Structures are given as structure tokens and as C-alpha cells.
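During the second half of the funding period, the structural biology subgroup turned its attention to how the target accommodates small molecules. The most pressing case was protoporphyrin IX containing FE, which had performed well in the primary screen but for which no bound structure existed. We therefore specified the complex as follows and requested a full 3D prediction, including the ligand pose.
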Amino acid sequence: MADPGAESGDESVTTDLADIDLTRSELVRKGFPHEIFTMLRREAPVWWHPMPDGLPVKTDEGFWVLSKYDDIQAVNRDTELFSSADGPSLSLNPEMKGAMLVSMDGHAHIRQRQIISAGFTPRMVGRLEDQARRWAVSIVEDALEKGTCDFVADVAYQLPMHMIADIVGIPPEDRQWLFTLTNDFLQGSDPDHPISREQQMGKQVEMFQYAQQLCEEKRKNPQDDIWTIISTFEMEDDKGERSAMSQIELNFFFLLLTVAGSETTRNAISGGLLALLDHPDQLETMRSDPSAMRPAVEEIIRWTSPVAYFARRATRDTQIRGVKIAEGQRVTLWYPSANRDEDVFDDPFRFDIHRKSNQQIAFGGGGAHFCLGANLARREIAILFEELLKRTTKIELLKRPKYNSLSLFNPIYLALRELPVRLS
Ligand code: HEM
């Protein structure tokens, strides 16, 4: 049985380093191409990937692929030597440079991170737990009523969407429309869902227009949510001058929150269920022993590692494992590979909710950009599985799952598209 972590993308995947081309979307047709990365960890842990010609996006001429846990963690933590200014993706978007939390360095990054942290007030965090449970109960009950459902669309998609929308302050009546738009925008690069570049950009414009409209509403009518804080916040620059965030920064912030807050957790929930269906004894343990939930959630996150990579750029010449990295070159950190590193995890390809000292690195390596939603994601996954397992006695997989094959230029390109199940 497949899972987004364990099964490789394509049976015809090469075993020759020189033939590896990570831009081929077929590689992720059945999940992360683990066999390629196992080979890279063994034979070339610091490996130069030339960029093929004719790509539809602007890129560097190539990039370093880091596949070992320790290297990924070290680069992730060294923000002075490895800059985030060009953003996490391998595609280059000059508009985004320094304009989004994930594409900022130094003080500017710290300042912007403080704004969003200001949104997570103790009152807000306290409220989230109850909200997540209410949503989880209603989502699971709706799915149970249907009996047969697509777990991705009907369950895994719903909880993270409603939670991030509650936090940001997106009115319930706009959610389905907005998140369908976000989804279509991201899936624009899937060969099975081809939309033209113009259509994709059109969707981005619609999203940005919505973000601006929401800003205006929150300024007129402030509420206890993050978008009110972000739209009205004034930042102090290095000279002590105060100014509001620019519209372009607000737009990208909105995109970051809606994508980071929903896609990732959705993939962890759906990939987690798939792994559990493949290990029914562990599913039963989770059902009967509440203390198993916490380590199970960490293992689900390790196993699914929903963010494939984040990119950095070397700010000066350096070396990793004796390999020379030149100033200006791009370096990519492959989190799913780090989470299968044989030197860190005992029997890494075994899904095991009882795993001791699970130092999974799916939320980043502990550097300045460490995932702001890590605890929220953990709680959403735990609450969803608690409510699901409480209300079901049997969960059957009806068909092989389908995967999205999004472009490499979306770092969250590993996703289950469809997981048909019967809940009883
Ligand atoms: C299983 C779910 C999730 C995974 C695997 C995940 C993973 C990641 C990773 C790998 C990073 C980059 C870390 C780095 O560069 O050091 C990141 C950053 C971020 N995540 Fe998450 N994330 C998840 C859920 C969420 C949620 C629910 C939110 C919603 C609030 C969120 C918000 C963010 C933000 C705002 C950043 C940027 C932080 C910065 O640049 O300072 N994430 N996440």
C-alpha cells in the first residue's frame, strides 16, 4: 500500500546520479522519490543539480541538493551564511524578494515575525483548541453521514482550512471560494490540471484583491484576528521610523498564511491516515490508548514531511562536507530526506508510532524561520485523529490514492489528491 513517504514516484526512476532530474513531475506521482534521496545520502550528500533548459520559470543555472539531516540542520540555522532573501522556491520572483516573511533575513525578518506572533495572543491560542475540536467533530460527523468519502477533500482539507481562516479572520461564507482559488492556483502546475500561466496569474490577482478588500474591512471594523493586526500594524525600521506594511507585503503575507496554514497540515493528515491504514495495529493502539497520540503525531509528521524543500543562497564561499559552495549559489534543504536519514533514525523506513526520541525536522531545522504554525499543526492533527477514531470502528481504503504532481517550483508539491475511504 502506498503512502506519501514510503513509496517512490516512478518505477522507471533512475539509479544513476547523472540522470537525476528533480524537475520531472512524474517523480512524485506516487509520493516523494525516496530511492533517489537514499542514493544521494549514500553517494553524494552534497550534490549539484544542473537546471534543465526550457523551464517555464526563471531560475538559477543549478542548485545544491542537501539530503543529510545534519547538513540541513546546520544550513537552516546559519542565516548569515545562507540567506533566505530569494524565498523558499527554486523559481525566482524578484517581486517576492524581501517582501514575504519566508524571503527575509535579519532584522526585517525578526520584525515581521513579531507582528504575526502578536496575533497569537494567549486568548487566541486558548480559543483555538476549542475551535479545532468543534470543527473536527462536525467534519468527521459529516463524513460519517456520507459513509463513503474522499478523505482528502471531505476531511483533511476542511480542518486546516477552517482553522487558518478563523485565525486570519476570513468570513465563513468566503472560505470555500477562496481556498478553491488557492488550490487551483497551486495546482496550475500539475500536468493533469493544466491551466495557462495567464490563468494562474489571474487567480493570484484575485487572491490579492481579496486580501486588500479584507484589509479595508478590518481597518473599518477591527476584530480579534490576525488580519486586523497585520492590516493596522506599524513597523519600526532601522532608523526608528514607523510605517504600515506595503500592499505587496500584505498580499504575500496573505498568500503565505493561507497556503502554509492549510496545504501542509492537510497533507500530514491524509498521508497520516494512509500510513495508519497500512499499519492497522498502530491505528488500533491510537484508538485505545490516548497516550499514544503525541508520539503518533510526531511520527505522522516525520513520515509525511509535507514540505519537500526550502532553498537558501550562500552569501560567501564556503564548504559542506568538503564540497565547495560558491558565493551566490543556491542550496536546497530536503526535509523528507533528512527525516529518513539512516544516521539519525533507527530503521527510518519503518512507520512506528512508538518511535523513541523522534527528532523529526519537518518544521525546519530550528533556525530563525522555524515554522510558526508547528504547534497549531500538531494540535490539529491530534484533535482530528482523536475525533475520527472515537467516532469510527472501521476505516477502509476503497481505491489506491492519487497524488498531485505539482511542479518542483512549489516547495509544498507533495500531496495526496484523493483518498477514497469508507467510514463506519
Ligand atoms: C504539518 C504542517 C506544517 C509543516 C510540515 C510546516 C513546515 C514548515 C517549514 C519547513 C517551514 C520553513 C522553516 C525554515 O525555513 O526553517 C515553515 C515556515 C512557516 N510556517 Fe509552517 N508548516 C506546517 C504548518 C503550518 C501552519 C498550520 C501554519 C499557520 C500558521 C504555518 C505557518 C508558517 C509560517 C508563517 C512560516 C514562515 C516562518 C518564517 O519564515 O519565519 N505552518 N513551515
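Two results from this model are relevant to the next phase. The radius of gyration is 21 Å. DSSP finds 14 helices and 14 strands in the chain.
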